[in-house]
What does this fold into?
Amino acid sequence: MTAAANSALRLKPGQLNTPVAVELVGVNKWYGDFHVLRDINLKVMGGERIVICGPSGSGKSTMIRCINRLEEHQQGKIFVDGVELTNDLKKIDEVRREVGMVFQHFNLFPHLTVLENCALAPIWVRKTPKQDAEDIAMHYLTRVKIPEQAGKYPGQLSGGQQQRVAIARALCMNPKIMLFDEPTSALDPEMVKEVLDTMVGLAEDGMTMLVVSHEMGFARQVANRIVFMDSGQIIEANVPEEFFNHPQHERTKLFLSQILR
Amino acid sequence: MTMAEGDLAVTEIRFVRGATIAARPPPAAMTGALGWLRANLLSSPFNIALTILIVLLLAWVIPELVKFLLIDAVWTGADRDACREVVQHRTIGACWPFVWERWSYFVYGSYPIPQRWRVDVFFAMLAIGVVWMLWLEAPRRDLGSVYFFVVLPITSFILLTGWSAIGLPPVDTALWGGILVTIVVASVGIVCSLPIGILLALGRRSRMPAVRLFSVVFIEFVRGVPLVTVLFMASVMLPLFVPEEYSPDKLVRALVGIALFASAYMAEVVRAGLQAIPKGQFEGAMAVGLGYWQMIRLIILPQALKITIPNIVNTYIGLFKDTTLVFIVGIFDFLRTIEVARIDPKWAAPVTSTTGYAVAAIFYWIFCYAMSRYARAMEARLAQGDKR
Amino acid sequence: MSIDLPAGSPPARVAFYNDPKVRSIAYQVALCAVIGFLVYAAARNAITNLERAHIASGFGFWNNTAGFDISQTLIQFDSQTSSYGRAFWVGLLNTLLVAGIGIVIATILGFIIGIARLSKNWLVAKVAAGYVETIRNLPLLLQLLFWYNAVLKALPEFRESFVIPGGIFLNNRGLFIPQPIFKSGIGWVLIALAAGVVGAIVFYVWARKRQERTGQQAPVFSVGLTLVFGLPLAVLALAGFPLAFVFPAAGRFNINGGIEILPEFAALLFGLSIYTAAFIAEVVRAGILAVSRGQTEAAYSLGLTPGPTLRLIVVPQAMRVIIPPLTSQYLNLTKNSTLAVAIGYPDLVQVFTGTVLNNTGQAVEVVAITMAVYLTISLATSLLMNVYNSRIALVER
It folds into this structure.
């Protein structure tokens, strides 16, 4: 393996340039006339794990999709590792290279094998030689505990396996920040644990993570902060014990009473 | 309060919102006409260039079209001089008097003038039948099916061809022409292709090898050859295969060709619908004790047809357009009457041909577009039935 | 409560006419009998009728002299010496010519319109949609007649031809373009073209191998284009342009010299291309829409830019959905070319099922041969399509 590949296989996530991983300042977004994000202010430090929860339609997914510019915000500023997100395409590409995302419906490329799925971005974006890219892919596939599936196609895997491949695929780009958009919501119950375990492992390695999820057990175990959103605004944020045991705001109490039984 | 690196347990982490933020309207640059323009038409240099190009194109085409059809058009006149620039000393658009004068030829062909009321009755009966079948909330639609598929064909046949016994003088099909022929050919095609297509589709799925073989061969053969050759085959070879005294008349030959052709395509559409029915439906019907034909009639076909109505209507649109091909075997459909009329010396002017084609285009476009809108409405309706 | 049957009792007896197996056989026998009878009766009538009309049978007519001229022939055809068989080949070649060029134009136009319909530019999308809705709802025959009669035949007489700089005449007898005469030395240009194509392929393969080894990318597209077009052009200039043109010139009764493109050919080509492009546009649009947005989002979130995303992710998946209906449209175009008979373009149907059938009267043989040709084209294409589909099907559990 080349020296380049060796360094790419750092077990630690990519190093941030600034202490603040993600900062949203006064962010507002509209879909047509609908005010979907209202005055969002959020600061995520390097190494933090944030779990974002809230009722559906509260804007949680929209918010994290703004962070890698899958959605555009109309007012306010978003900084990712010191880089401001504007219409500047070069900046957007730079940010997307350093931010990994895992989707609710996996979005694996069905016409490529699992190995090709993972090696695609390193080859075409970071211009890694093919063999090195495949070594990196196999390394992360082993991390998520499915190296034997490398030659299969996504259609041949179970939901839990596909989501783990999706996590490995994002990791192959050695991102500094990982975004998770309801990663377990589309999985059958018996597969949720294997994916959550993978995410816990990531957290233990010090990855900065923003996770939109309803999995409160995972939040309790791993999150530094829980952020509760409703109607496009952040209603409450707190450390997990305080959040679950002493919710302050009315809406938080209502939400928790509905999901915790 | 500043945050040191790695120092996570500070009070800034804790946050509780005081007053909730009300929804605000979006910023002015985003909304209204200006915002829409910027987003849709002017979002990048390439887009701007495209927009300019298209606007120029439309600015050229649309006024020309309006000028031709309306502004420069001639509305009254007796013969070609009304539509010739050298005589009128102005730019001439469409020659509408040509259309007014020949309109009854376009609609009835050479059908004898005193008998044309029969054609009108036919059109009215057909319209009733179509509305009855297509309007899903109509009363007694089962009677409607009987009317459309049995009563209407028989009465129309008698009405149009004549039956001396009840005082309707016979009218030879060679005299029929224009919209009458187009509608007759389309209707026969539509009415025949669905039942025959269903039989062929069932035959193709049959477990009896001979039946399946015959169905497959017929469908693949007819779908693999052009309609023109099928029409040639029908018009040239059919008389050979039949003893001389029964030689079918030209229109019947064309009808047979069109009906068989449309049936093969309909068979594939129905087959797709049948394939979409889960096996459980067949099994459930058989378990209840229904015989094969009962199962097909009561359980399977209603579901299969409902699923494929959009595709059935699309096939009908194709069929309607294909009626123009009978032109090639000498039948005077609407398009052929226009072709014949436009070379009439009485109306010979440079704009006559274009006027004729414009009329034909309007006619066919209206019918086909109406059918495609119906298909889309049906599709939306069916999708609704699956939403919870 | 169970029912005890004595061991070894035979199964219940059923009346033979209720036995499904017997019924099935009976139906099939009945069907074959009916079809057999119809075929027999038809054949017998045909033989009687043909005899009565003194029409020959068999394929002997193939070698008889044709005795008529054909307005466009890609191979040598002489009314005095060429046979009906040769007329068949002329017609077939004309069909393949118009279908081949039509397919190319329709595909390019169809892809452009299909992609335009998905554009974010509202004007572009609406205009493209307008094109599709208008063209799809008008019969092809109407469009052909319009192009032929209202446009091409309405062009001026040859004495007042439109003259386009470069020696091109346009009038109601056709489009006359300069005919290239290849002098010696043209061989080098052809060799250069071949070398350019081979060079482009070699460069592509080398670039791929290098990318696998080192990760660096090379501008394959631009280099390939330069080689394929630039090399022959360079050799053309170096060899002193060994190319002459015979320019069309206005004579007393006609335009002489140059290549004549018949209005019938042009009308058929325009009509077919524009009509089929509307359908291809819908196929392309459906194919692109079939690739879910999540695929592009995942690609972007990995840092892929739109170019590679389109090339590596969207297009491969879209082509799976596009190719089967696309070949179906190609087949439709080929079958629709038979409408040539309405405007007098000498395609296979017009020449063979038209003129030859009229001259020989042998309807059965002529129509059968024509249908066999189209049937072969259709079945061969379906077969290839099935093979393609099974090869590229997405692998699933």
In short: Chain B touches chain C through 57 residues (CB under 8 Å). Chain B has a mean pLDDT of 85. The first helix of chain B runs from residue 32 to 40. Residues 99 and 356 of chain B are 7 Å apart (CA to CA).
